[in-house]
Specification:
It is a single chain. About 40% of the residues lie in helices and about 15% in strands. The strands form 3 sheets. A 6-stranded mixed β-sheet has the order 4-5-13-10-11-12, with helices on both faces. A 4-stranded parallel β-sheet has the order 8-7-6-9. A 3-stranded antiparallel β-sheet has the order 2-1-3. Among the domains are: about 35 residues; about 210 residues, Rossmann fold (3-Layer(aba) Sandwich). The longest helix has 17 residues. With about 400 residues, it is of the alpha/beta class. It binds ligand F0G.
Length: about 400
């Protein structure tokens, strides 16, 4: 049986496994699921997790739930769309662009709704249904909204999503609408939308932002899968885009658990890459400060990570410290060029994801990384998540004017 605990190590508060609280009642820090060491030996677990890939049972076929020995357990049915199990792809042109030799992308955009949010949502929504929830809600820059809407529909719950008006990409908004969510547009940023939602404090709503500890459990499995694909031997570096910092926190938790449970010996150095106009954690890192200063008006073309006041910053920093990693930022132009390189590999991604490749080039130029280093970069969103961006940036140069018969 698992339980919830405060993520502040000195606090020590524990709560029931299915408590609905999103923060520690004593100190206000975020909560996390305490996972007990699995009963099986590491080598047996690795075999079991792999064997499940040959099963068609929903909880084996899901790339999240096949790792269920390290997840909260449910007697009830899980809410799944067959998420996870995404490939690790080699990327030669991207590697060449960045100047490195040994690069793999873990494309979490190749999930059912086109982003890594599905991994967290299958876990969060399974918990929501277990609790008998009628309506689930989130604030979002778009991807969480799309995933929440889809998984709520799947689990038979109503969905309400709070989006910063005019800032989420049309593709993501369209997904949320298609899956039947109620869309509330908030005048302001993602941070304003999240504040508004948390202030609503409606007992009938179940919150599924990444401060929800069950979301984190689902998202952490991406790293179990990544390590499996690397033969349980860590690459030198792991690049992750940073927004609200739930994903970085989830990945950090995964590495801490894998190490503690004897599944791996080494961890990769985790590098969180933010966009320069929405870079509160990178600023904190550079200044070696202790308290995060929010960026009041975050601005970047990578709308998914246009976030000035990330909630999970403490957990993310802990992950960086645990893995000996670092935090950095890249400009919109740098991530734009990186995105084009990823496109030339036939892979593609949304702008926020391209921060990872831009970050690699910058680290190499700063001699913080060796060109022979083995690097895994996490692509978080599908190329079709922000088509306006592509058409605006590329359309004018690459598309020919329509030709008339006379000019042919
Ligand atoms: N990449 C993409 C494509 C995202 O959609 C997000 C976050 C991130 C990276 C950053 O992840 O917040 O865990 O650090 N999108 C959220 C949303 C905020 O509402 O869809 P993070």
């Amino acid at each position: 049986m698992t339980y919830l605990q405060c993520s502040a190590r000195h606090c020590g508060t524990t709560l029931d496994a299915h408590d609905r609280a999103l923060a520690c009642p004593r100190c206000g820090d975020l909560l996390e699921v305490a996972v007990k060491p699995p009963a099986l030996e590491p080598s047996d677990l690795k075999v079991l997790w792999r064997e499940r890939r040959e099963s068609w049972e929903p909880q084996d076929a899901s790339g999240v739930w096949r790792f269920r020995e390290v997840l909260p357990t449910y007697e009830s049915e899980i809410v799944t769309l067959g998420e996870g199990n995404v490939p690790l792809v080699r990327a030669r042109k991207s590697a060449q662009w960045a100047g490195v030799r040994n690069l793999h992308f873990k494309h979490l955009g190749w999930n059912p709704t086109g982003s890594f949010k599905d991994l967290g949502m299958t876990a969060g929504m399974t918990e929501a249904r277990f609790l008998g929830t009628k309506t689930v809600a989130c604030a979002s820059t778009g991807n969480t909204a799309a995933a929440l809407a889809a998984y709520a529909a799947r689990g038979g719950m109503a969905a309400r999503v709070y989006l910063p008006a005019g800032q989420a990409s049309a593709n993501k908004l369209a997904q949320a609408l298609d899956y039947g969510a109620e869309v509330v547009q908030i005048a302001g940023s993602f941070d304003d939308a999240l504040n508004e939602l948390l202030a609503a404090a409606d007992r009938d709503l179940y919150f599924l932002n990444s401060i929800n500890p069950f979301r984190i459990e689902g998202q952490k499995t991406a790293m179990f899968e990544l390590m499996e694909q690397f033969g349980w031997r860590a690459p030198d570096f792991l690049m992750v885009p940073g927004g609200n910092l739930g994903n970085s926190s989830a990945f950090g938790k995964a590495f801490m658990e894998m190490k503690r449970f004897g599944l791996i010996e080494q961890v990769p150095r985790m590098v969180i890459v933010q966009a320069e106009g929405a870079n509160p954690l990178a600023r904190l890192w550079r200044s070696q400060g202790v308290e995060l200063q929010a960026v009041p008006e975050p601005e970047t073309v990578a709308t998914a990570i246009r976030i000035g006041n990330p909630r999970s910053w403490k957990k993310a920093l802990e992950a960086i410290e645990f893995t000996g990693g670092l935090v950095m930022d890249v400009t919109d132009e740098e991530l734009g060029e990186a995105k084009e390189a990823i496109g030339r590999d036939g892979i593609g991604c949304e702008p926020a994801s391209a921060t990872t490749l831009a970050g690699i080039r910058k680290l190499l130029q700063a001699r913080e990384l060796d060109r022979e280093a083995s690097i895994a970069a996490v692509l978080t969103g599908h190329v079709l998540k922000d088509t306006d961006y592509i058409i605006k940036r590329q359309g004018r140069n690459k598309m020919r004017e329509p030709l008339t018969v006379a000019t042919l």
